[in-house]
Amino acid sequence: RDRSVSRGLGDVYKRQAESQLIYPVCFSNEQRIVQIKGEAYFDVAPDSEHPFIVQTPYTSIQVTGTTFNVRAYPDENIESTTLINGSIKIKSKNEDFELTPNQHFIFDKNSKRNTVTNVNTELYTSWESGSFIFKNIPLESVMSYLSKWYGFKYTFEDDAVKQVKIGAYLNRYANMNPIIDMIKELNLVAVSYTHL
């Protein structure tokens, strides 16, 4: 479900399910600008004369050569950027941030607050290499994440179940069945599903 785009300048973008990556047929002589709605993994070639800029609805990320992940789904309450290597500058709500490797930037759409923390980047980029890692994440967030990848709808019959914390390393499968089986085996929640 992920799609890779390789640009002639050495830039590679890999977008996640349900994501739109908008870029020109040919970049201008001054800047390389792309827009993302959803999630994308970027490996950008160094070129200080032609800065690479990723725009989301709430942030602008300037890059000169680096590897990073951006998550900006319209239906989620946060936008985030995770830096794997290199450096990036983020402009958000009249504030500027410069990230170093292993830092995670979050813009909270509800509170309009920005935060930067040090993280294990694999928690935010594992989808790019064919797996999903969840560490103490509410089941509602896990299901939201997986529904984008596998294209399914879900409901909770009990609001308390939404907050059950899940920790798992999951391989990316062709369908959701092995993951549903794993959730059932945890015996934390009852799961029922129908095939469409």
Structure description:
This protein is mainly beta and 196 residues long. 13% of the residues lie in helices and 43% in strands. It has helices at 122-125, 139-150, 177-185; strands at residues 3-6, 12-15, 20-22, 32-44, 52-55, 60-63, 66-72, 78-85, 88-92, 95-99, 103-108, 113-118, 131-138, 165-171. The strands form two sheets. Strands 1, 2, 3, 4, 5, 6, 7, 8, 9, 10, 11 and 12 form a twelve-stranded mixed β-sheet that branches. A two-stranded antiparallel ribbon has the order 13-14. The radius of gyration is 18 Å and the shape is elongated.
Q: What value does the Rg take, in angstroms?
A: 18 Å
The DSSP helix count reads 3
What shape does the CA trace take? elongated
What does the average pLDDT come to? Answer: 85
Helix content: 10-25%
Structural class: mainly beta
The run of helices and strands is EEEEEEEEEEEEHEHEH
β-sheet strand percentage = 35-45%
